[in-house]
Amino acid sequence: MHNEHIPTPVPYHQQISAPSHHILSAIGNTPLVYVPFSTTVPLYAKLEYLNPGGSVKDRTALYMIECAEKEGLLAKGGTIIDASSGNYGIALAMIGAAKGYNVIITTTHKISTEKRQTMEAYGAHVVLCESASFIEHPNSYHSIACKLHQETPNSFMPNQYFSPLNAQAHYVLTGPEIWQQTQGKITHFFAAVGSGGTIYGAGKYLKEKNPAIKIIGLDAENSMHSTAGKPKPYKVEGMGIDFYSEAIDYNLIDEIIPVSDENAFSMLKILARNYGFLTGLTSGAVAWGIREYLPQLTKHDYAVMIFSDSGRAYLSKNVY
């Protein structure tokens, strides 16, 4: 599937309407830290769980809301409605609280208790929907969000799964940060693929700076993509190509590696107890994928992986 070009981005500082000391100004500029796996390959993780809302989705949510405000699509006292597997919903809930919007998030029963409670702690209304194999199903959490948007006056739906602004946020923010933090030395970029915004937006920017950079995606083993259209249930949240969005050019991704729940979860204890990274489920998948990929790398390469969120959001799942 191929998308139209990412729209010409508006400089991020022009999108932010909050003063510099505002909580939302703390989004982005996350640290890039060395991961001391047993290898001569320089490996680094971008700690997106240090965003104020706790995940990489803070970037997408704020960018989309600020754009909507600029375009007059979201009025004061309005309601933000969207579908989320958790982190994006948390980001919207935090932003809604900070900016004075009502927030309604549709999600599935697969979501961790901590994520649901976090959204509610910010004041969002969470609607739990049945898990559907396909996003087009009338009872899917995306379809329910669309229905609620149509029924709710003065509401706005960013529609993260199909809006080009999802990827644009990472083209404007995440990609340039990684390029600057690595001083242009990056050769491989690893990220989980869910909505596709992070890997496509950041990957597109990095490829424009250096076309030789390899973009490697990690996908759930039982996703629609990995099973060739015959998806099965899986437990990892926030990862899995279960539909193709016209807002994403999947051809930009050089390789997609399927990861099982077992392999993703097996890395979580290793990251926490051996290296001090208490990461979320997709980060376990990314770390497992990069270890599998290591034989293809040399000491002259420079690999960066995205650690999307914190393990604190999944403690009730007993995977640590």
Task: Describe what you observe in this structure.
It is a single chain. The protein is an alpha/beta fold and 320 residues long. It contains ten helices and ten strands. It has helices at 12-15, 57-70, 87-99, 113-121, 141-151, 164-172, 174-181, 197-209, 261-275, 281-293; strands at residues 32-34, 43-47, 79-83, 102-108, 125-129, 155-156, 188-192, 214-220, 255-259, 303-307. The protein has a six-stranded mixed β-sheet with strand order 1-2-10-7-8-9. Helix 4 (113-121) links the parallel strand 4 (102-108) and strand 5 (125-129). The N and C termini lie far apart (37 Å). Mean pLDDT is 91; it is low at 1-16.
Features:
disordered N terminus; globular; alpha/beta; 320 residues; six-stranded mixed beta sheet; four-stranded parallel beta sheet; 10 strands; 10 helices
